[in-house]
Structure formats: C-alpha cells, structure tokens
Design brief:
Elements lengths: L1 E4 L1 H13 L4 E4 L4 E5 L5 E6 L20 E8 L2 E8 L2 E10 L2 E2 L4 E2 H8 L4 H27 L4 E6 L4 H5 L14 E3 L9 H12 L1 E5 L4 H7 L27 E4 L3
Parallel strand pairs: 5-10, 10-11
Antiparallel strand pairs: 1-12, 2-3, 3-4, 4-12, 5-6, 6-7, 7-13, 8-9
Length: 254
C-alpha cells in the first residue's frame, strides 16, 4: 500500500518518528526513511518531500536553508526542465527535437544500433540530436553557475543518458553525482505542465507499507488526517520510448 501526505503532514510524521525513537535509517539516494522492526527488517518506507534537506543519523536535517533543486525530464526528443527553490519554480525551459525516421517509425539511435550504418539524412538527424542535448546542458550550466543546487530530480531513459553525459557541452554533474534523485513515478511526454505535476509529486511525502502496519501508519499521521489528502495520479499515457521526429523547435515559457 502507499499513501501520499502533504508537505506539512510529512514534517509531522518525521517529527513523530523522532519522538517515538523508532528504529530507522535514512536512504540518501532515494531520500527516504526506512522504519525497521526489532530484527532489522523493513516495515515502512517513507519517501520525504524534496524540500526536506538530507538527514543525519539522528534523522535531523543536515542543512538549515531552503532546498534548491532542478527537475530534468527527458524523453524521445522532448525535454522539460526547471530550477526550483523551496518548491517554487523560478525558471523553466522546454526543448523539442523531432528526429524519427518517417518510414520505419524508429528512432535514429535505435536504428544505428541495429544497422550499424546510416545515410547522410540520418547523420543530419543525429546532428539535431546532439544539438538537442547541448542546449539542455547549456541551460543546466546556467542553473549550476548561479545557484547552489542540492538535488537533481531526473527522469531519462538509459538509451538517452549517454547523449546527455557525452554532449559537446558537458553536464555540470556526472552520472555518479550523489545529488541525482531518480523520480519514482511514470512521467508523461515532458512539457511544462508535466514538469509542474512532477514537482507536486516531489513536494509530497509517500508512505509505503503492508496492510499489517496500518496501525503504525495511523500512529505516525497527524490526528484526523484523512484519505482526502492523498494525491490522485494522472492517468497513464501511451508513448513510444526514444521515438524521435524531424525538425527542431525550442519553446521558451519564460
């Protein structure tokens, strides 16, 4: 089972865990508190809102400053990205690059993996792909140059990651950067609204548990906290992973 809680309720849940001195550990990579039983087995997973700073061993925040983070969503020639401070979006950008082979309907990247060679037109489309990632990294460079970034909320397929990290314009972080947080949620084709919905998801806490631990969950939640506070997920969307189109179009919502 899982249950979403508001940012305010999540803070009270964390405080309750501390007050009850429940056996727990903090997982930095997934930004969650893991509640344990007497034998050290996992009972409850509590994903924290992205605005909560990383925790120390005593589950107290390491930092006493507003969280600054970027959200980076990349899919099949579409990218939505933004800089956030304490949950508020202060800058955003959308890139689009269409590079699908029209007849086959297959991305140029996948085509080269299966065929090994391509014609001039295909190389042009790959050039557009390179420019797509260079523009993404250029905007990231701006964010990291002007702000202290505490977290990188990322959603990107494994097929596309090499193009991100190997672009002529480098990313301001490497693939092993400990600040990277893989968004644990299905992401629709990246546009501004999808990025903002992802931010709403990241601002909530999430309790994941088995039904036998329902009493413990109720003990942790603020008194009177009802089911109406849970988030309703967006409907699932069908899309082709890594499918590129032709032409290039960059949209700026600033």
């Amino acid at each position: 089972m899982n249950r979403f809680v508001s940012r305010e309720a999540a803070a009270k849940v964390l405080q309750k865990i501390q007050e009850l001195a429940l056996p727990a550990t903090y997982d930095y990579e997934k930004h969650r508190v893991i509640l344990l039983d007497a034998q050290g087995n996992e009972q409850v997973l509590f994903r924290l809102p992205i605005t909560v700073p990383p925790l120390k061993e005593d589950l107290k925040p390491k930092l006493d400053k507003p969280a600054q983070y970027v959200i980076l969503l990349i899919q099949a020639g579409n990218c939505a990205m933004g800089y956030f401070r304490d949950g508020v979006n202060l800058n955003h950008k959308v890139f689009r690059s269409y590079m699908v082979r029209k007849k086959q309907g297959k991305s140029q990247i996948k085509y080269l993996k299966t065929k090994g060679k391509s014609r001039a037109g295909s190389r042009v489309r790959l050039g557009e792909t390179a420019e797509f990632f260079e523009n993404i990294n250029g905007r990231l460079q701006d964010y990291f140059e002007h702000h202290e970034i505490h977290r990188i909320a990322l959603s990107c397929s494994k097929t596309l990651l090499p193009f991100l990290y190997d672009a002529k314009v480098p990313t301001p972080f490497n693939k092993r950067d400990e600040r990277i947080f893989k968004i644990p949620k299905h992401i629709h084709t990246p546009i501004y609204e999808v990025m903002m919905n992802a931010n709403l998801f990241l601002l909530k806490g999430e309790l994941i548990y088995e039904p036998i631990h329902e009493d413990l969950i109720n003990q942790l939640l603020p008194e009177g906290y009802g089911e109406g506070d849970a988030e309703e997920d967006l409907p699932e969307e069908e899309y082709g992973d890594d499918e590129f189109g032709i032409d290039t179009d960059f949209e700026n919502y600033e």
